Amino acid sequence: MTIDIAFDDKGSGPALVLVHGHPFDRSMWRPQLDHFSERGWRVIVPDLRGYGETTVVPGKTPLTVFARDLETLLDRLDVGEFVLGGLSMGGQIVMECHRLFPERIRALVLADTSPRAETEAGKRNRTEMAERLLREGLRPYADEVLTKMVAPANVAAMPDLAEHVHRMMRSTSPEGAAAALRGRAERPDYVPTLAGIRVPTLVVVGDQDEYTPVAEAEFLHAHVPGAELAVITGAAHMPNLERTVEFNSVLADFLATLPQAS
After folding, report:
1. 49 within 8 A of 78, measured Cβ to Cβ
2. Stretch 129-157: mean pLDDT
């Protein structure tokens, strides 16, 4: 089916595409959208299918579908090559994009994400969570996980940030979130593909991330040839929001090393 994809497209220059995680929307990248669009980049941040202002399609959304949606959007925007980054589920979508159309990707940014296939226990948990979100909506879940998404000290010290993250979660469509959870439960194992990555890659993680701990980022770093690793101190699962200055600095340094766009 045809869907309407909501997105921000700001700045001019080589393209930097950033993919949000679950259960968020494109507003999680606002600090990066503003920062890098003022520094010579065309920054494109979409709402994924089922999230934010993009069409909700109930059922099951595999990572391949998310990746093809991004490909379609970038075709429509006449973007050939681009730097592609994503956080958490967004990072897994990035890996799927690299599997499907690596020739278009200049560099990868993998933030707070894992390349591994879901475990059997994880598959059950995601399927059960999908049903729970359909029953309850997102608010109870948002209440439960806020201090895992954002480090507890940051929730206390940065109430506006905490409210932004909580609002993104509680505003997400239960049908869209459930479809993504069912799709992620069946995601492939990207570990065998990592050795074949031939573009510059930055791996970023918050040092307090419980969902994708530092060890998982170190695993990615070790398996992607030539990858760089940045551990952001004082952040949990959302270092781009919790430690914006540090995250932007790390990303800017990485982008500055890239060859000129063709």
Report:
1. no
2. 97
Q: Amino acid identity, residue 62? A: P
Q: For 59-83, what is each residue's pLDDT tens digit? A: 999 999 999 999 999 999 999 999 9
The dihedrals phi and psi of 163, each to the nearest 5 degrees, come to -65, -40
241: helix, strand or coil: helix
Phi and psi, residue 25, nearest 5°: -150, -175
C-alpha span between 57 and 176 (Å, rounded) = 6
Residues whose CB is less than 8 angstroms from the CB of residue 196 and which lie 6 or more positions away in sequence, other chains included: none
Length of the chain as a residue count: 262
Q: What is the mean pLDDT of residues 161-173?
A: 98
Secondary structure letter of residue 39 according to DSSP: T
Q: pLDDT per residue over 196-247, tens digit each?
A: 999 999 999 999 999 999 999 999 999 999 999 999 999 999 999 999 999 9
Residue 262 has pLDDT above 90, yes or no: no
Q: Does domain 7-256 have CATH number 3.40.50.1820?
A: yes
The set of residues, in sequence order, having a beta carbon less than 8 Å from that of 181 and lying 6+ positions away, is 22, 126, 127, 129, 130, 133
Q: What 3-state class would DSSP assign to 115?
A: coil
- From CA 161, how far away is CA 27, in angstroms rounded? 12
In DSSP notation, 49-67 reads TTSTTSPP--S---HHHHH
Over residues 1-15, the mean pLDDT reads 96
Asked, as a colleague might, if the bond just before 23 is cis with ω within 30 of 0, I would say yes
The secondary structure of residue 233, as a DSSP letter, is T
Count the Cβ atoms, other than its own, within 10 Å of residue 156: 11
Domain ranges of the chain: 7-256
